[in-house]
Design goal:
306 residues, alpha/beta, Rossmann fold
Length: 306
């Protein structure tokens, strides 16, 4: 099949290459000339404008957006929508909010343009291992474009599927990322406990390797933990600050709206926010309060409370 790939960063370029290996024709576009040049160097056919991208594809066209959620998706669709015709399909594979996907699907449908929101997971290793994909949109569109998803997935029949109407694919991916927050936090806390038990002087990388085989907690995240600990056992030079791209916040907000208790995911989100508080005003107030009511010494910067 023919596909237009909009966004040739690490994920977009990797997906384009996997599709090309599977026998599909992919034409790529990225407003970043350096990203486009790198994709061209890898053998991906590229064009310089969205107009040229649409012109390079025979109708009914399929165009896949792999650009950052939010303003980048919105601005791209503002330019792309008028260029498309009835029967074309837009696939959005980023981490957009599901309500935005529902709105965009409705706007495109007014002109007979199809929409699929695809919660895509797999990271930079997906090019070889395949991508997990949850699809939201009309079943007929999924069926027509099935060869693309079958090629991108770990196997033709596994790791992907339609999960509901427009918005459902991104909603499922939102919750997936919330779960991911909790799992990552559990690994981080567990290895921190082991690290601080100096009596046993654990080799954390070796311990992680043991758990990778047969253990109940074996997983790709554990594999990545082991690799990180082998590469840098003391994690030297890595700042203890963890970013979040929004999905964890949305998951917690949905849990609250639905009256569903989600303490693990919520705690993991709060831990990420806390990691970025270089000022730690709240902790400094706690220290001051402890000193005020209990007579404890209040540590100053660079000192430790006795």
């Amino acid at each position: 099949m023919d596909l237009g790939m909009i966004g040739l960063g690490r994920m977009g370029a990797g997906m384009a290459l996997r599709l090309r290996r599977g026998g599909h024709r992919v034409v790529g576009y990225d407003p970043d000339v350096h990203a486009a040049a790198q994709a061209t160097a890898q053998g991906i056919e590229t064009v310089d404008t969205l107009d040229a991208l649409v012109a390079a594809l025979a109708p009914p066209r399929a165009l896949w957006l792999m650009v950052p959620a939010g303003a980048a998706v919105e601005s791209t669709l503002e330019v792309l929508h008028p260029l498309l015709a009835a029967g074309d399909t837009v696939i959005e594979g980023g981490n957009s909010h599901y309500a935005d996907s529902q709105r965009r699907a409705a706007a495109l449908a007014e002109d007979g343009i199809g929409w699929l929101d695809v919660g895509t997971s797999g990271g930079i290793r997906g090019i070889d291992a395949g991508y997990s994909m949850t699809l939201g949109g009309e079943a007929a569109l999924v069926e027509r474009l099935q060869p693309l998803f079958a090629t991108l997935a770990p196997s033709a029949a596994r790791g992907w599927g339609r999960v509901g109407p427009a918005g459902a694919g991104h909603y499922a991916k939102m919750v997936h990322n919330g779960i991911e927050y909790g799992l990552m936090q559990a690994f981080a806390e567990g290895f921190a406990i082991l690290h601080h038990k100096q009596e046993f002087d654990f080799d954390l990388a070796a311990l992680a390797d043991i758990w990778r085989e047969g253990s109940v907690i074996r997983s790709w995240l554990l594999d990545l933990s082991a690799e990180a600990l082998h590469r840098n056992p003391a994690l030297a030079g890595i700042a203890p600050q963890v970013a979040d791209s929004g999905e964890g916040r949305w998951t917690v907000a949905e849990a609250i709206a639905l009256d569903v208790p989600a303490p693990v995911i919520t705690h993991a989100l709060i831990a990420r926010l806390r990691s970025r508080d270089g000022d730690a005003f709240g902790d400094r107030l706690l220290a001051s309060l402890r000193g005020a009511f209990g007579g404890h010494g209040v540590p100053q910067r660079g000192e430790t409370d006795p």
